[in-house]
Amino acid sequence: MLHFFASTQLVRYDDIHIIREESCSAQSEKFQPLLELVIRRNRDRLKALLADLQTEGYTETASLLDLPQGFLSKTLHTIAHMEDGFFGIDAAFFDVDEFSLRLTSRRRQLINDQPEQCWLVNIRARSRDGGGFES
Question: Which of 4, 5, 19, 28 is the right S-S partner for 96, CB 3.0 to 4.6 Å?
Answer without folding.
Answer: 4
